[in-house]
Amino acid sequence: MLWDAVAACLPFQTLCPWAVKALQCSTTSCRRLVGIVICTSFQRHQENVNLTLAANFGYLLRNFMEQLGMSTTEFQLSREPSSFAWERTIVVIESAGQQGTGTFIRVHNKRFILTCAHVVGQNIETVNCRAADREFQSEVIWCNPDSDKPFDLALLTAPQDVPERCCVRLARSPATLGQMVYNAGFPYYVNFSFRHDFNPSIFQGRIIKCDTGAIMSDGSVQAGQSGGPMFDQNGCILGVCVSNIKLDDVVYPNINTAIPICDIRNTLQQFARTNDLNVLSNLVASPDVHRVWSLEMPPIRSKL
Ligand SMILES: *[C@@H]1O[C@H](CO)[C@@H](O)[C@H](O)[C@H]1NC(C)=O
Ligand SMILES: *[C@@H]1O[C@H](CO)[C@@H](O)[C@H](O)[C@H]1NC(C)=O
């Protein structure tokens, strides 16, 4: 186990021959110790975060070896580049000291960033963004002016040279009960002063409820994932994650609500075609949808 862990951090040539032999396990049976679990929930900014946190074993080992006076110059602690395309489609957004997530979307060949209004905040013109390969400022095209009314959405400009493969397509069909989904974002603090801090997470779940103007899933969503994408199995954006459930200060990250893309698709397409900002006022939802998001009971239409 220890040697597997060492191998995870050191280039092979720095190990002695017998160690290299011991490490030649088949890729399917080889398990490497990458972290040691510290806790499964913690607090940040007075909010509970329900997330398994582990200490990076590579850093622990380097520290240990330094204390033994061993050379650690060959340690490779950088994160392995991910082959998952989804990482390149999301951005961390910093606005007025808050952080959230956004998604590069492509609508009629135009590129935008879709996020939540509460991530951007009111009366904000530009926000700071960090994507997998760049940092940039993005302008707020539209942000729901009434933070109490759904949809909790904001549309931002995206750099026009963002490659097509980094832009997500809008899902064509509505979510269905039991459908597998993937909620992505930055559930933990991203340090904007540290250029290399780009560590998004993704959680698998299922659609557990489809309502008018709202879909719920059981794939974990934490505070920094606000505005993040809910992907379907084809990698299209099916929803924009808005909130989880919080009762008496206890957060339930596995019950969460998202804005269905199908309900805003037409408006986004119309805006991309016309560039008419007035079109975006259609992103403020109907009173029926208000009721769903404020968790009010629907009016009783007939009593038996
Ligand atoms: C989330 O974390 C808090 C502590 O930070 C804990 O009290 C609570 O039980 C956890 N909730 C769930 C659903 O695990
Ligand atoms: C953020 O990164 C900067 C630059 O690496 C570092 O000096 C600072 O201590 C970091 N802040 C936190 C809270 O980790």
UniProtKB/TrEMBL annotation:
The full-lengh TYSND1 is the active the proteolytic processing of PTS1- and PTS2-proteins and in self-cleavage, and intermolecular self-cleavage of TYSND1 down-regulates its protease activity. GO terms for biological process: protein processing; regulation of fatty acid beta-oxidation. Its EC number is 3.4.21.-. It is found in: Peroxisome. GO terms for molecular function: serine-type endopeptidase activity. It is an enzyme of class 3 (hydrolase). Keywords: Hydrolase, Peroxisome, Protease, Serine protease, Signal. SUPFAM superfamilies: Trypsin-like serine proteases. InterPro entries: Peptidase_S1_PA, Peptidase_S1_PA_chymotrypsin, TYSND1/DEG15. Residues 1-22 form the signal peptide. GO terms for cellular component: peroxisome. Peroxisomal protease that mediates both the removal of the leader peptide from proteins containing a PTS2 target sequence and processes several PTS1-containing proteins. Catalyzes the processing of PTS1-proteins involved in the peroxisomal beta-oxidation of fatty acids. PANTHER family: PEROXISOMAL LEADER PEPTIDE-PROCESSING PROTEASE, SERINE PROTEASE-RELATED. Belongs to the peptidase S1B family. This is Peroxisomal leader peptide-processing protease. The lineage of its organism: Eukaryota, Metazoa, Ecdysozoa, Arthropoda, Hexapoda.
